[in-house]
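Postdoc handover notes: sequence design on the structure in folder B. Input tokens:
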């Protein structure tokens, strides 16, 4: 994961086949972690809010880490 493949604010979308791949580079890795941490806190409708509770937090981080490398 180079972390430079896609920035969500620049118009790319999350691949529906792997919603945990926030960068769109085909693998959940460090770039995705950077985006999740950058969205940390109250952030409704952010793709990193995997739980859909309006917060990007440790629950979302745990989900991402469970998908790491996929």
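Designed sequence:
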């Amino acid at each position: 994961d180079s972390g430079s493949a896609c920035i969500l604010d620049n118009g790319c979308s999350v691949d529906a086949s792997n919603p945990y791949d926030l960068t769109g580079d085909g693998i959940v890795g460090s770039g995705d972690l950077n985006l999740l941490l950058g969205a940390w806190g109250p952030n409704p409708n952010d793709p990193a809010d995997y739980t859909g509770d309006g917060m990007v937090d440790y629950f979302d981080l745990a989900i991402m880490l469970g998908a790491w490398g996929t």
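Context for whoever picks this up: Residues 1 and 46 are 21 Å apart (CA to CA). Don't rerun without checking with the PI first.
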